[in-house]
Every structure is written in structure tokens, then in C-alpha cells.
């Protein structure tokens, strides 16, 4: 608009008020506001009229009513007597769980495939190519349903579970593993863990400073590993190892005890990770190819071998190209986790849908969905923007 | 000082020897690419093993053990106690094929759907091949005339009391028909909307910009499934008493708004790539805003983003499967429903159905992505700097 | 920069919506004016509302819509069907998209009041039951402690399961799917020990399992599920039409009027039959219908018993006995108010 403003707004170009760009701009914006307000008014008044005529209660008061239904996976305390609000919160946490686990798996897999796609080995690069094309071009919903029913049909039932080492079990009710039970004094280990993480970060900062000023390197990785493993162990030893394991055991129809990962979660995370990894692989490939070949040659000339070249020279530069599209893939994965509704994984959309059905509060439930996903999107992109700024090229 | 010369000059050409076996031909290629080092050799062997473990069961299931003919589920069930594995039940797909393509569209009227399919192909193929002339006419036919004709062909046409084409209600539509209707309508409707919002987002009028940004970011921030739930559950409440929309139309509105936001971002990318000189040149010629956009900027920008538009279309095409969740019968939904038919219930029916769906989607999407790459390469020449 | 077109487009859109906002007349007048009844049905439940390969809908719930059509228009075929998911069904009715919801919907207090609906009667008394694999060796629902239960979300079913297992102090896991097909497939694949649904639905879906013979329906019925047609709150005339259509079908069975003998019965001496068939009195007119409305219903759709036998009765694949749905005279609880 400015470009045109500059063009026309010369002193000698006399024009009527209608042709004055400033006036036109104000006029059209006022018009737009009026139209948007009018549309909003019509929608709201229609809705209110509809709700009143049909005698439908409105408002968010229903969130404190008793839900009354069971949920197969809850990260917080939930019982049938909990409120609808708690049920939705359970769904939100499950969505976040899937998103976080999915992002980690998809990134790992995606980076591997992306690098494999550029491999000099023909077999490997062709395989990676087939993987990317096959996965990218099939709808995610189909893949989720496929993995779910494949999992249910391929693994045996509870009585004939696959057993790994006597304490891990896989059957069509899920994956069962021993669950650690922390007794008194275990919180000491927890604090020890936090302390050692903080200490590791401090060591890293100190080591970097030292390397910058003196050029001496410090084995940060080993130190951190040692700290993070040894300190909590030490704390546990001081407290007298108050940890016991709860082993899963077949009782009645199902396994009881232990930690259970429900098949819906396995299928959903598998499908989401695989689907997103294909897109990430392409992003990684493009990112690596965007780094000029001279960088590799220079690194080799400095005597770096292939591994360190990739790790220290190519990847950090490629990251700058990779991060913005990677952000949108992470956002997509988070939004796509809503397809859980197709396979009965209790995520936000599926539990919200149940609440919607039980209460009939369509507007309220859908507004909660939209609000939550918008916030998740904004938070993820804010975090990635911060990271992107940190990684961005600092030019002199 | 006469000396017999001990050197000799070769007068004929030495016979050409083939390059060493180890560096040329397949073996050389294999040595260089597959077995150049111990690590590489291990990778190759692992890769080949992996490929074998993936493709061997797939081929066995889909081709070797597959059942190709049969009247009902008995054909696809393993003989009692034989322990023999039965592969894909293609007989099921064969029996249900018309439903997968047309849904429950009345058999007597299916020719109408075929005309629409044929018209679409006849208009799209010349549109997609860059060297075919009459692009403008073709575009008008495809984007204006075709939708109108196919609307009447698909839904029916009644003038007064005369039934020219019997009405076919949208609940009878299904399968690939619904998938294509949603995807094509979605993309056609989202293009103009997307252009408007892209222009709005680049506007210097703060309110126009704000409205566009909110619109775009809102739709891009929420999952499509909640949009579909909104259009199927909430939209009716927004309308005045007594005004109702067809369910398919409601879904179409949701899909069009949703993809318009993505389209807007694609178009914005194209607008940003147009050098400032083009704007200045247009203004120097005395063009106002809309002529400048319509004649100078948009033709260039849209040409640049054709690959992006095709990619958005691929995404939309795949996303149409989500309408299954709100109870519509697209290709996947139709297949999903058919697999529970008691006549065909067998352990492999479901997998076969999904395999078929996957193949159909793969053919469409892979074809489109190849086309997008082809166009990208073709267009790239003019804009390489 | 979209200033020129955007407001125009929005303005035009508003014009359309605003002009369409005409006051709604009564549903009966609306239906008569448009010439058909829009009937909300399920997305496919054999015996209740299910499309055949040609797309024709059949079933007990469908028959009710056909009966209303017969009563209003004299022909049962002026009905259009909207297949609806559990989630959409009430909004579809509230928004006026459909005229009747006849989709195995349970009559509960909260639905009757806070959703703005009216239940026009009960055309099938159902109850929730459990289906299990035979090889599980379970004979009673009380042995299901610790079981995984597959069910459909958004129904009273889910709440009943929770109530039942809780009141019997049995731990359980519920796996709630959005669509019935997925529940069936997951149960078939062994995700759950138990499939819970309305008993009628259990019989209907058992047919679609890989090996129907491997599964049994347990004897316990854990809930009351009166299923019936639903109309919008606040339109009493239409409510009466639907309610009395159902009652007329019951009364016809009680009085022995069938689709075969309805013409002869017109000359019956029984005053009740005379009133029913409009030979005496003007009961149809009181509803705003033709006087021979019941004749049209019975001739085209049959009485309640005929509809039941045709769709779900012992001679159909579902093989459901009348049980609670027998007439009150025969030990059931189907009891219609008299026409007088």
C-alpha cells in the first residue's frame, strides 16, 4: 500500500476525496470492522436465540459436574467421580504426552533417515527414498488405523503374551514393564538428580568459557553422565535403596501390576513418528545440502574425520535452515495427535468428544479444543523461535 | 658413428583393453558405492536384509498368497485346521469396487458420475501439460464451467415439475467421489480466499492486516478434526432458526476455510518473492492497485507458487480422510464400513481394504508430487539468479 | 489490500443468511409444504436402521418414519434419511436439519430437559448387556472383574459400564471408540474381553464378527434403555403426530388390525377398531391429519408386531424375541393410550 501511496501522493496530483488513498484506507478499514462486527453479532445473536429456544443450558458450569465415565490412560488421579473438567485435563495431558514422545521419536528417526538419504551407499539411500515416498503419500489416518489393527492382530492375547526376560510382556492389551515403587527417602534421589543436572549445566558453561579463553577442552559429556548417574545412586545408597519393583503378573483376564503402555498409545506414537519422520527427513536432507561443499572440504583440510565434520561443521550450519520448517512439523505432529479419536486413545479431542456427547455443550467443548490447540501452537512456536534465535548466524 | 637404433616406433595402434573389471560396469559401480569399506559393506548387507524383510512378506501377502476371486468370505478363509496362511482378499475389493468409487450412488445414475470424472480428466490433463495451448479458455472451463455442470450432474436437476436429472441426495454419495469432491472443491474455493488473505496480510492498513493475520493463524493453529467437528456440530447453531445446510456442504465450508489459511501462506511466499521493481514498474505505468495485482504481480507470484499449491492440494487430499471421523463416507470411510460386512468378514479383509486405500492414495499423491517437482524444475529456469 | 472485495463478499454472504432468517412455522406445516419428512437415523445398525446394497433404508426405527409419512401423506415413501453419528444427532434435530430423530436413542431426563428435546414414546425397550468370547469361560457379568470393555463413546452405555463395575467393586478398563465399526473390529481383534452395548445392538453386531459362533451374550442386563423417536421441544402438534403414530401402530396390533386385513377391518363392529381406522369420529383431524391416517399406516407399514417381526424378530438373522416389547396383554410392557 505504501508504495502506491508514495506514487500518488505527490503534491501536484490533485484528486477528489474518493481517490485519496488515505481516505480510502480509513473508509475500507471502517467498513471491514463494521462487517466483521456485524457477522459476529449475527452469529452470536443466532446462537443465543437457538440455545434459548431449544432450552439448552450454556456456560462452563458443567465442567464441575461429575463425569461418570472411565478413562483407560490417566497421568493424574482420575476416577469416575471426578469432574468433566478433570477429564478434559486428563485428555490434555495425554495429548501433551503423545506430542512430546512423538516429537522425540520422529526427530531421531527423521534425522537418521535424512542422513541415510544422502548416504553414498546406494542401497541405503534408495531404501531411505522409498521410505520417505511411501510414508509421505499415504494419509496419516490410514496409517494410524493400520498400525493399530496390525498391532492388535499381530501380537498374541494376554494368556500367550510374548515374554522378554520374565518381566517384560507384550500382548494385545499393551506392553507391560516393571514399575519402580519409591519408598521413604526416595525423594532424596530425586533432589540429587535435579542437583546433578544443574551441576552438569554449570560445568558445561564453565568448560566452554575455559575452552574459549585457553583452548583446553574438558570432557563435559563424561562428567555430566557421571554426575547424573552417580549422584542419585549415591543418594539412594544413603537412604538404603528404598526402591522396589512392581512386576506385572497375569491375573484373571489381564496383567495387573507393573507399568502398562496401552496399545492405542503405542500405535498412535508409532504412526505419528513414522509419518512425521518422513517429512523431517526431507527437511534434514535439504538442510544438509544447503551447506556449501566448501565447508566439508575445509573441515577435511583441517584434519577432521567424517563423523566430527558432520557433527561439528555441517549439522550446526544445517540447523539454521532446518529449524523453521522443523517447527511447523512439530506443530503438525501436535495437531495430528488429535486423530487419536479414531483409535480410542483418550486424548483431548476424544475425551472432549465424550464430554460433548454426555452434556451436549457443543460450543463450550469446541471452544476449549480450539483454545488449547492454539495455545500449544503458540507455545511450541515461541520455544522454537527462541531456539532459532540462539542458533542463528551471528554476523560481524 | 653408426649405431643401430635400439628403439622402435609402434606403427599401429595398441589394442584397446577393457577397463579393469573392478572399476567399471556393475562390479565397479558396486565396489564404489556398496563395498568401498568394511563399514559400507556391513551397511549394504544390513540394508539388503532390511529390504528383504520388508518386501518379502508384503509381496507374499499381496500377490502370492492373495485370493483373487470369490463370492464371499469363504474364499478368503483358510481351510479349517490347515494352518495355511491366506493373503490379501482382493475378491473383497473386487466385489465392493463400485462402492469404493461411487459410494451408494444409485446404479442407474452412475453414468453421471462417470461423465464428471471424464470431464475432469479431459480438462485437467491439458491444463497440466505446459505445452498445450488455450490455457486461458481451459482454466475458465475448469474453474467456472466444470463446477457448475458437475454440480447439476451430481446433485440432479429439476426445473419446475420436469425432472431432467433425478435428485441424488448427498448421503448417497461416497467413496472416491466424496474424496474428490471435497478435495477439488476445497482447493478451488480456497485459492481466491487464500489470495485475498495473503494480500490482506501484506497490506499496510493495520486493521485489514490484523483481521487477515488472526484468520490465518487461527485456522493454522487448530487441527482439521476440530474444524470438522465444529462444522458438523456447531455451525447449525450459528444459523438462524430454520436455515439448514447439507452435511457435505458444511464439511466443505470447514475444509475451504481451513485450506484457505494454508493457501494464503503459500501465496504470501510467492508475493514476497516478486522483486520490488515489478511493483514500481506497474505503478510507473499508472496502474492502480487491482490492475497492478491482477496484471503484473499475481500472474508472476502464482506461477512461482504452483508447486506450493500442488503440495497444499496433496495435503488436503490426504486430509479428506478425516471426514470419516465425522461420519461421512469418503474412500477410507467407505472401505472401513465395508470391512464389517458379515459376508466378507475374514482376518485379512480389513488389511486388504487398507492396502487398497493406501495404493489409491499413494498413486494420486505420488503422481501429484512428481508433477510438482517437474513444474518446479521447469519454472526454476526463469528465476535463477 | 483486500479492502475492495472482502467486505463485499462478506456483505453478500450476510445478505443471504439474513434473508433466510424467516420465522419457522410448525413442523407439520413445514413437512406438508416441502412434501417429505427428514428422518435422522443411525449410520447402519442392522434391524433398526440400515441401508441395503441399493441404499434403501430398512429397520424398526425406519418403519416409524415411514409410518409418520404414511399418516401425513398417505404414502410411506416421502421420507429422506440423514445418517447421523451419536455426536451429531441432537444438534441435527435442534437445528431443524431433521424433523424426527429415530435412531435408537435412549430416553433420559437430561436429554428430555437440557437438550431441548421431546421423546415421543418408546418403540423398543432395550437394556445394556455384555458380549464375551466363549473360550473365556465366563457365565455371568459378575465374573468380569479386571476385564477390558470395548464400547462406543458418547452414549449412555459408557456411563452404565462405569456404574455397574463400580457398584460391584470390580476393576475394569474401558476402551471407548468413536464409531461402532471400530468397536467391533477392536473387539474382534482381541483388544477387549467384553463388548458392551444395548442388547439389541449386541445381537446385530455379532453377525458382523469373524466367527459369530465364538461369542455369547451374557444374561445380565445392567440398565434400562427405552429407545424411542425424538422431536424438537416446543412444537406440540408435531410431537402429537409422532407420538400417536407410534400409539396407533401398537393399538392396531392390540386390536388385530394388520396390513393384510385392514380393509376388511374397516367394516368391523368393534367401536375401538372403528375409531382407530377413522370410520367413527374425527380423530385424524384433531391431529391435523386425514381421518384415515391409521389405515394408511397399517396398510403401508403394518402394525407394531409386523414391523418388529419383519426387522428384528425371531425369523430374522437378529432373532430377538419380543420379551419386554410384547404387548401388555402378552406379558410385555408395550402399552398404548387408547384412541378416543
Describe it:
The complex is a heterotrimer of chains A (396), B (385) and C (340). Chain A contains twelve helices and eight strands. Among the domains of chain A are: 84-140 and 261-391, MetI-like fold (Orthogonal Bundle); 179-246, no CATH class. In chain A, the strands form three sheets. In chain A, strands 1-2-3-8 form a four-stranded antiparallel sheet. In chain A, strands 4-5 form a two-stranded antiparallel sheet. Chain A is globular, with a radius of gyration of 28 Å. Chain A has 396 residues and is of the alpha+beta class. In chain A, 66% of the residues lie in helices and 7% in strands. Residues 1-10 of chain A have low confidence and may be disordered. Chain B is mostly helical and 385 residues long. Chain B is built from 14 helices and two strands. Chain B has helices spanning 25-33, 38-64, 90-102, 110-128, 135-155, 175-201, 206-221, 224-238, 247-273, 276-284, 289-304, 306-319, 331-338, 349-383; strands at residues 157-159, 162-165. The mean pLDDT of chain B is 84. In chain C, strands 1, 4, 5, 6, 7 and 13 form a six-stranded mixed sheet that branches. Chain C has a five-stranded mixed sheet with strand order 10-9-11-8-12, with helices on both faces. The radius of gyration of chain C is 22 Å and the shape is globular. At the A-C interface, helix 2, helix 5 and helix 11 of A face helix 1, helix 4, helix 6, strand 10 and helix 7 of C.
List the helices and strands and how they pair.
The complex is a heterotrimer of chains A (396), B (385) and C (340).
Chain A lengths: L1 H7 L12 H33 L30 H34 L4 H15 L3 H15 L7 E3 L3 E4 L2 E4 L1 E4 L3 H29 L5 H20 L3 E4 L2 E3 L2 E3 L2 E3 L1 H28 L2 H9 L4 H31 L11 H12 L2 H30 L5
Antiparallel strand pairs in A: 1-2, 2-3, 3-8, 4-5, 6-7
Helix pairs in contact in A: 3-4, 3-8, 3-11, 4-8, 5-8, 6-7, 8-10, 9-10, 10-12, 11-12
Chain B lengths: L24 H9 L4 H27 L25 H13 L7 H19 L6 H21 L1 E3 L2 E4 L9 H27 L4 H16 L2 H15 L8 H27 L2 H9 L4 H16 L1 H14 L11 H8 L10 H35 L2
Antiparallel strand pairs in B: 1-2
Helix pairs in contact in B: 3-6, 3-13, 4-5, 6-7, 6-9, 6-12, 6-13, 7-9, 8-9, 9-11, 9-12, 12-14, 13-14
Chain C lengths: L5 H15 L6 H8 L2 E5 L8 E2 L5 E2 L1 H14 L5 E5 L5 H6 L5 E7 L2 H5 L3 E3 L4 E3 L1 E6 L13 E6 L3 H12 L4 E6 L2 H9 L5 E5 H8 L8 E3 L7 E8 L3 H19 L7 H4 L5 H6 L6 H5 L5 H8 L3 H8 L29
Parallel strand pairs in C: 1-4, 1-5, 9-10, 9-11
Antiparallel strand pairs in C: 2-3, 5-13, 6-13, 7-13, 8-11, 8-12
Helix pairs in contact in C: 3-9, 3-13
Main location (chain A): membrane
GO biological process, one term (chain A): amino acid transport
Keywords (chain A): Amino-acid transport, Cell membrane, Membrane, Transmembrane, Transmembrane helix, Transport
Amino acid at each position: 500500500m505504501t508504495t502506491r501511496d508514495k506514487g500518488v501522493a505527490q503534491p501536484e496530483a490533485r484528486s477528489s476525496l474518493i481517490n485519496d488513498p488515505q481516505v480510502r484506507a480509513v473508509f475500507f478499514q471502517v467498513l471491514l470492522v463494521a462487517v466483521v462486527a456485524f457477522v459476529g453479532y449475527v452469529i452470536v445473536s443466532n446462537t443465543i436465540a437457538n440455545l434459548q429456544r431449544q432450552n439448552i443450558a450454556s456456560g462452563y458450569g458443567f465442567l464441575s459436574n461429575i463425569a461418570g465415565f472411565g478413562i483407560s490412560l490417566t497421568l493424574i488421579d482420575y476416577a469416575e467421580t471426578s469432574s468433566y473438567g478433570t477429564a478434559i485435563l486428563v485428555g490434555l495431558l495425554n495429548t501433551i504426552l503423545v506430542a512430546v514422545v512423538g516429537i522425540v521419536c520422529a526427530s531421531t528417526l527423521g534425522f537418521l533417515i535424512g542422513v541415510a538419504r544422502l548416504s553414498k551407499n546406494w542401497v541405503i539411500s534408495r531404501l531411505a527414498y522409498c521410505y520417505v515416498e511411501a510414508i509421505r503419500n499415504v494419509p496419516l489416518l490410514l496409517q494410524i488405523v493400520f498400525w493399530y489393527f496390525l498391532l492388535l492382530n499381530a501380537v498374541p492375547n494376554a494368556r500367550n503374551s510374548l515374554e522378554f526376560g520374565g518381566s517384560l510382556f507384550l500382548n494385545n492389551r499393551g506392553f507391560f514393564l516393571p514399575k519402580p515403587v519409591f519408598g521413604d527417602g526416595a525423594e532424596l534421589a530425586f533432589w540429587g538428580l535435579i542437583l546433578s543436572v544443574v551441576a552438569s549445566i554449570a560445568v558445561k558453561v564453565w568448560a566452554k568459557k575455559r575452552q574459549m579463553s585457553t583452548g583446553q577442552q574438558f570432557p563435559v559429556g563424561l562428567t555430566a553422565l557421571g554426575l547424573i548417574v552417580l549422584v542419585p545412586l549415591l543418594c539412594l545408597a544413603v537412604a538404603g535403596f528404598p526402591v522396589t519393583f512392581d512386576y506385572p503378573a497375569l491375573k484373571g483376564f489381564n496383567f495387573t501390576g507393573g507399568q502398562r503402555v496401552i496399545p492405542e498409545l503405542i500405535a498412535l506414537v508409532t504412526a505419528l513418528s513414522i509419518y512425521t519422520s518422513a517429512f523431517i527427513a526431507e527437511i534434514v536432507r535439504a538442510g544438509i545440502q544447503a551447506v556449501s561443499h566448501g565447508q566439508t572440504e575445509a573441515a577435511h583440510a583441517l584434519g577432521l574425520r567424517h563423523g566430527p565434520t558432520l557433527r561439528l561443521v555441517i549439522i550446526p550450519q544445517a540447523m539454521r535452515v532446518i529449524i523453521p520448517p522443523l517447527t511447523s512439523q512439530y506443530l503438525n505432529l501436535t495437531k495430528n495427535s488429535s486423530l487419536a479419536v479414531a483409535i480410542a486413545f483418550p486424548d483431548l479431542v476424544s475425551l472432549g468428544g465424550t464430554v460433548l456427547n454426555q452434556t451436549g455443550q457443543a460450543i463450550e467443548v469446541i471452544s476449549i479444543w480450539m483454545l488449547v490447540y492454539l495455545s500449544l501452537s503458540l507455545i511450541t512456536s515461541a520455544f522454537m523461535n527462541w531456539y532459532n534465535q540462539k542458533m542463528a548466524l551471528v554476523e560481524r | 658413428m653408426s649405431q643401430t637404433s635400439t628403439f622402435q616406433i609402434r606403427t599401429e595402434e595398441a589394442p584397446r583393453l577393457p577397463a579393469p573389471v573392478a572399476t567399471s560396469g556393475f562390479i565397479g559401480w558396486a565396489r564404489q558405492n556398496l563395498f568401498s569399506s568394511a563399514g559400507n559393506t556391513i551397511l549394504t548387507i544390513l540394508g539388503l536384509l532390511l529390504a528383504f524383510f520388508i518386501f518379502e512378506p508384503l509381496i507374499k501377502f499381496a500377490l502370492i498368497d492373495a485370493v483373487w476371486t470369490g463370492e464371499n468370505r469363504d474364499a478368503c478363509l483358510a481351510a479349517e485346521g490347515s494352518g495355511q496362511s491366506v493373503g490379501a482378499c482382493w475378491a473383497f475389493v473386487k466385489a465392493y469396487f463400485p462402492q469404493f468409487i461411487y459410494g451408494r450412488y444409485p446404479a442407474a445414475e452412475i453414468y453421471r458420475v462417470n461423465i464428471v470424472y471424464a470431464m475432469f480428466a479431459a480438462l485437467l490433463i491439458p491444463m497440466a501439460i505446459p505445452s498445450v495451448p488455450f490455457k486461458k479458455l481451459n482454466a475458465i472451463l475448469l474453474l467456472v464451467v466444470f463446477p457448475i455442470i458437475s454440480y447439476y450432474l451430481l446433485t440432479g436437476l429439476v426445473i419446475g415439475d420436469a425432472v431432467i436429472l433425478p435428485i441424488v441426495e448427498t448421503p448417497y454419495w461416497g467413496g472416491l467421489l466424496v474424496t474428490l469432491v471435497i478435495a477439488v472443491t476445497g482447493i478451488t474455493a480456497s485459492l481466491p480466499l487464500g489470495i485475498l488473505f495473503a494480500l490482506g496480510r501484506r497490506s499496510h492498513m493495520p486493521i485489514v492486516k490484523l483481521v487477515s493475520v488472526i484468520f490465518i493463524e487461527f485456522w493454522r493453529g487448530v487441527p482439521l478434526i476440530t474444524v470438522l467437528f465444529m462444522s458438523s456440530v456447531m455451525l447449525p447453531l450459528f444459523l438462524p432458526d430454520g436455515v439448514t445446510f447439507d452435511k457435505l456442504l458444511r464439511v466443505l465450508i470447514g475444509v475451504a476455510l481451513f485450506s484457505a489459511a494454508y493457501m494464503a501462506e503459500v501465496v504470501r511466499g510467492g508475493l514476497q518473492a516478486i522483486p520490488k521493481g515489478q511493483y514500481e514498474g506497474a505503478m510507473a505505468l499508472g496502474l492502480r492497485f487491482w490492475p497492478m495485482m491482477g496484471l503484473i504481480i499475481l500472474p508472476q507470484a502464482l506461477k512461482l507458487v504452483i508447486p506450493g499449491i500442488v503440495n497444499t492440494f496433496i495435503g488436503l487430499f490426504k486430509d479428506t480422510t478425516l471426514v470419516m471421523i465425522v461420519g461421512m463416507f469418503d474412500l477410507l470411510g467407505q472401505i472401513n464400513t465395508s470391512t464389517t460386512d458379515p459376508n466378507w468378514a475374514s482376518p485379512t479383509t480389513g488389511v486388504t481394504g487398507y492396502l487398497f486405500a493406501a495404493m489409491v492414495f499413494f498413486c494420486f499423491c505420488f503422481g501429484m508430487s512428481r508433477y510438482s517437482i517437474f513444474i518446479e524444475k521447469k519454472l526454476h529456469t526463469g528465476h535463477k539468479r | 489490500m483486500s479492502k475492495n472485495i472482502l467486505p463485499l463478499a462478506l456483505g453478500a454472504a450476510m445478505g443471504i443468511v439474513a434473508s433466510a432468517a424467516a420465522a419457522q412455522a410448525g413442523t407439520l406445516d413445514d413437512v406438508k409444504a416441502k412434501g417429505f419428512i427428514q428422518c435422522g437415523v443411525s449410520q447402519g445398525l442392522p434391524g433398526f436402521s440400515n441401508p441395503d446394497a441399493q441404499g434403501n433404508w430398512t429397520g424398526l426405527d425406519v418403519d416409524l418414519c415411514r409410518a409418520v409419512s404414511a399418516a401425513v401423506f398417505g404414502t410411506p415413501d416421502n421420507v429422506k434419511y440423514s445418517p447421523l453419528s451419536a455426536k451429531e444427532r441432537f444438534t441435527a434435530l435442534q437445528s431443524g436439519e431433521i424433523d424426527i430423530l429415530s435412531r435408537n436413542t435412549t430416553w433420559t431426563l437430561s436429554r428430555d430437559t437440557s437438550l431441548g428435546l421431546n421423546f415421543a414414546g418408546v418403540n423398543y425397550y432395550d437394556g445394556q448387556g455384555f458380549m464375551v468370547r466363549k473360550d473365556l469361560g465366563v457365565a455371568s457379568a459378575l465374573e468380569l472383574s479386571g476385564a477390558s470393555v470395548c464400547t462406543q463413546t458418547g452414549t449412555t452405555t459408557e456411563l452404565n459400564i462405569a456404574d455397574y463395575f463400580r457398584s460391584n467393586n470390580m476393576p475394569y478398563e474401558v476402551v471407548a471408540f468413536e464409531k461402532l465399526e471400530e468397536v467391533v473390529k477392536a473387539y474382534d481383534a482381541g483388544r477387549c474381553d467384553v463388548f458392551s452395548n444395548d442388547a439389541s445392538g449386541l445381537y446385530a453386531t455379532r453377525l458382523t464378527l469373524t466367527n459369530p459362533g465364538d461369542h455369547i451374550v451374557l444374561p445380565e442386563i445392567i440398565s434400562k434403555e427405552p429407545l424411542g423417536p425424538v422431536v424438537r421441544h416446543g412444537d406440540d402438534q408435531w410431537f402429537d403426530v409422532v407420538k400417536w403414530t407410534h400409539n396407533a401402530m401398537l393399538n392396531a396390533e392390540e386390536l388385530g388390525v394388520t396390513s393384510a386385513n385392514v380393509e376388511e377391518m374397516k367394516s368391523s363392529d368393534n367401536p375401538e377398531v372403528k375409531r382407530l381406522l377413522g370410520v367413527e369420529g374425527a380423530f385424524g383431524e384433531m391431529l391435523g391429519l386425514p381421518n384415515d391416517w391409521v389405515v394408511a399406516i397399517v396398510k403401508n407399514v403394518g402394525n407394531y408386531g409386523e414391523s418388529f417381526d419383519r426387522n428384528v424378530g425371531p425369523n430374522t438373522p437378529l432373532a430377538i424375541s419380543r420379551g419386554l416389547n410384547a404387548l401388555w396383554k402378552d406379558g410385555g410392557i408395550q402399552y398404548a393410550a387408547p384412541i378416543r
